[in-house]
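For this section, I looked closely at the sequence of one protein beside the tokens encoding its backbone, which the following lines show:
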Amino acid sequence: MIPIIGKYRITYWNGITQHKTLISREVYDTEVKSIIEKANEIQSKMWETSKKNKKYGELDKELKRTIAPVKELGEYFIEGSPLYNSIDSGILILPDYKGLGGTISRNVTIKLI
């Protein structure tokens, strides 16, 4: 099981609400990232294998076992991310994305549940 810091309810400026799990940057870098990389390797092997091949089914089971700990987190965010940095201020500052016009600031409410 991947250790979590807490679960939060996030309400965005447009009224949409999400529930997300907060994890530490260290846990992301040492556990989650390696699980995702391993899952990507398995998926790559699956794409090279026919679905009719027995090996495909074995890879599918391995993928499900590998990714299960990350799926248990549900949607998550990481310490130091823009969402994390808005917990106290209530202002979500998104950096420039692909040259689309600079930073964007939006109001957001984040509460521990």
Remarks:
- Helices lie at 25-47, 54-73, 82-85.
- The mean pLDDT is 91.
- The first strand starts at residue 6 and ends at 12.
